[in-house]
Amino acid sequence: MSGILPATFVPGFHDEEQVRQMVYNDLGKTGLKVSKISFGTGVFCYAYNDVNVEKCRATLIRALKHGINYIDTAPYYGQGEAEEVLGKILEGIPRKAYYIATKVGRYAKEWENQFNFSAEKTKQSINESLKRLKLEYVDVLQIHDIEFASSIDLILNETIPAVQEIVKSGKARFMGVTGYPVRTLVECIQKSVIKFDTVLSYARLTMFDDTLNQFLPIFKKHNLGIINAAVNSLGLLTNLGEREWHVGTPHIKEVCGQARKLCLQNNVELGKLAVWHSLQQPGPDTTLIGIDSVEVVNYNLEVLHNGLTTHEKVLYEDVLEIFKNNLKEKHWENHEVKKYWDYIKSLS
User: Which CDD domains match (predicted)?
Assistant: First the structure.
């Protein structure tokens, strides 16, 4: 719904006209009304960029003033770097002006120390995140990439009860879960006696992978706020292309490369097509996009408010044809998990 002023509106800080243009949706049953586009900060760290705090500040403030009101981060992003950068920026922004989510469970760059879903580490992690963010609480605390846990029982018996304690303590308002294999998210949600408030699925409702759609009714049945993240497939669906660490299969990368080449030849940003595609999909409450510059804020707002040009729509259909005719697999599910556990076993 557009035309409204959400609870996050702050007179004197926001551009009221721009805020009224933004579409806001209920985030499940949380009571939060979140912008249709939300702000991902994975790009506020070395994994994507050489971080410039002032550039990040200008980017986030531009987004907030134009009505984007949901920010997502994690201690894993740059091993705390993204949260530290955010903390420096948020000091000068009214706390009422945004909702913010962070995560627990995934931390270090190196695999041997990357995951820890224990209750002790979970409780320690939220304290460290709040210190970096310079906040007293976050709105949503999410368990990060649960498919890497040694078993679902660890998540059910340790991590979830610990997050529930954190919510009861007031350090977080709501709890959520994230991951790449959507079936694993469903299994966790259905088996947990403690109810989640949100679910974040990434790179599973894109121009070439619509897996999330088949599970949306389950998430809706559980009254979950649904966050559709990484609609650019972690860079695959952009003119810049994926970073060297991307875990997608060679075949998927090759076909996305064909789409990228066509867009470059026609002076169209593939990322804009990818964002527009995902914004048209019914079901998710917000579309979470990594945003690293004012220019990226502007083009995402442009595609939300005005859609695609006639020229871009032609290219959009051509790109869909490339995927339809050439793509023989649409995801890299379990590839990274297998590599991770093969490595961990090799250590012993």
Answer: AKR_galDH
